[in-house]
């Protein structure tokens, strides 16, 4: 973990700069993809909760939501397996990319409209 050796898919590259950078780029791209897919999943969940169950749109949103949940779970497992084989430098870079990715999502206002366009759904019966 505290070495600069790169491990990927069962292979070890001892102190190879190109392998280190390429794995960092791959890990970072998977993290950004994970952030994008999970954001879309939350958006679709809010849309799904705001549609009447008897409407024809309901089934469309339901299957889209289930597909996004499945894709999100698969990418989460892949990210975990990549993180397990990473060294400390790769872990630090992935954490920074994840922080900046969430910051970019909010700064680009990709989630702002979801909080203003949809009514609040009370999931607790009163």
Describe the protein's architecture and organization.
- This protein is mainly α.
- It has one domain.
- Helix content is 69%, strand content 5%.
- The chain contains 4 helices and 2 strands.
- It has helices spanning 17-49, 57-84, 88-107, 112-117; strands at residues 6-8, 11-13.
- Strands 1-2 form a two-stranded antiparallel ribbon.
- It is elongated, with a radius of gyration of 19 Å.
- It starts with 5 loop residues before the first strand and ends in a 9-residue tail after the last helix.
Order of helices and strands: EEHHHH
What is the strand content?
A: under 5%
How many beta-strand elements?
Answer: 2
Mean of residue pLDDT? 74
Distance between the termini: 52 Å
* Side-by-side strand order of the widest sheet: 1-2
Overall radius of gyration: 19 Å
Low-confidence segments, ≥5 residues, pLDDT <50? Answer: none
Structural class: mainly alpha
Output the number of helix runs: 4
Shape: elongated
Helix content: 55-70%
Reported for the largest beta sheet, the result is: 2 strands, antiparallel
Overall tally of domains: 1
